[in-house]
User: What shape does this take?
Amino acid sequence: MKRIGKKAGLGYVSVIAFFVLFPTTLGANAQETSSPGNTGGVHLGNMAISPVGNQPLMYAINGTVSDGFRQVQIVYSPSTPVSGYPLSMALTFLDANGNLIPHQNYAISVKQDGIFVFSNTTGHTHTGYDTQKTNNLLSSNPVDIQITLNGVGLPGTDPSSWTGPKGDVLNFHIIPEFGPIALLVLVISIASILVITAKSRVIPRL
Assistant: This one.
């Protein structure tokens, strides 16, 4: 009976490590964390969201403002960029206690392949929660979202009277599941296992 040597064992460990370090939730990268959302149809504000293909419905990514207390959360769908489909986004602006920040003014832009697919320089939310939707994406390549905080205050009033952070920029980067780097690591891991396994076979004792 054949036995697998220690080197082969290490090879199998490397595969397990790959799927731990590079899970299929590689669809979102941001300043903070990403997490999967629901898998059935839902509503983001007044937008009805349905699954696109076999992609998980949505993801949440968070960014912390420079003061270290306020946060901006983006829940977006589909979970990875899909060519020919828009990216729907629900924005939440939170204070240090996790409460919504009403009358937050902001600018948002979304770029893909160096081209703007959405831009709004006069964003405002009365409640601390807002929704935005891009044009149809040009490809399934990574998407960059940039949000600039412009202060808290009623629209139509003097911006110099607005409070809170002004000019703070938060950058979010959304990549497709199993992007080029992840695929390369996977191929290398599999190739390494095959080589190590072949060299580690032990001739059975008679």
